[in-house]
Amino acid sequence: MSDRLPPLTALRAFDAAARHMSFAQAAAELNVTPAALSFQIKSLEEHLGAPLFRRLNRAVELTEAGRTLAPGAAEGFQALSAAWMATKRLQDNSSLTVTAGPALTAKWLAPRLYDFARAHPEIDLRFSATLRNMDLTRDDVDVAIRFGYGLDEDLYSVPIRKEWLTPVMTPELAEQFPTPQSLVDAPLIFDDSIGFLQPPCDWPTWFRAVGIKFTPQHGTHFSNADHAINAAVAGMGVVLGRRPMIIADLQEGRLVAPFKIAIETKARFRFLCLPSAEKRPQIEAFRDWFLAEIEKTAHISEQFIIVPVEEIPAL
What we know:
By secondary structure, this protein is an alpha/beta fold. The protein has helices at about 10-20, 25-30, 35-50, 65-90, 100-110, 115-120, 170-175, 205-210, 225-235, 245-250, 280-295; strands at about 55, 60, 95-100, 125-130, 145-150, 155-160, 165-170, 190, 220, 240, 260-265, 270-275, 305-310. It folds into 2 domains: about 10-90, Arc Repressor Mutant, subunit A (Orthogonal Bundle); about 95-315, D-Maltodextrin-Binding Protein, domain 2 (3-Layer(aba) Sandwich). The strands form 3 sheets. Strands 9-8-10-7-11-13 form a 6-stranded mixed β-sheet, with helices on both faces. A 5-stranded mixed β-sheet has the order 4-3-5-12-6. The longest helix has 27 residues, at about 65-90. The radius of gyration is 27 Å and the shape is elongated.
């Protein structure tokens, strides 16, 4: 038996048949006749010197050799497809696909994208608002903006400004609850999307930062940060708002941050792309615009006393 790899067309026919467990369906996927597909698989079996399928009356099943080959064939074609797509993207300087979380997209990115589009009409921008982990090698995505602690191995990664949180509410509610102590009786809103942060950046932590021992037992919970902020804008209550999610509402007066203590986490947003991809014109333009937009509101942080959560003692 030769160690030389068999023809790629034969391996592709086997991969399709192994996935569908049907020669007819595999032939339809590859746009060939069942006879042509059967010939390719037969030639692969001859190359191997052993059968890969058991031909039954109305079905096929993998032999031991077929079960051994199938995972590697599938992985190989997936890797080849990903490499081909990545190589094709290198030739494309006119389109840019970005993924970011739904909350950041809604509260920070979307209101600003008109400025980027106007400045770069040559770039066809596509957005995917999702928290799903993306493989920048395999998925059709150029840039990912992700929040967390992140071990961004084998990626080009630019950490964004540190993330802080502070209570925000409508001006009307601020008149009813003018002091940190008064928030003990306020309707509180919980953003459960940051429940993974350690140490926690939650209401009990903020109350400890201002010297109040209080663990809220009741309130309205939201799984998305933008929904929690929108509920605060609607006057439903007071939310511990994250910096990028509340900046626009603070600037436009829909929300106020009457207390000058903010708590800070080590988790942060990062701008991610494949190594060397940051040199592509459209990625470089988007990165530079993104970082410049963040700096435009950096002065807002100066209005607060920002306390790292690691330095907040337990009461």
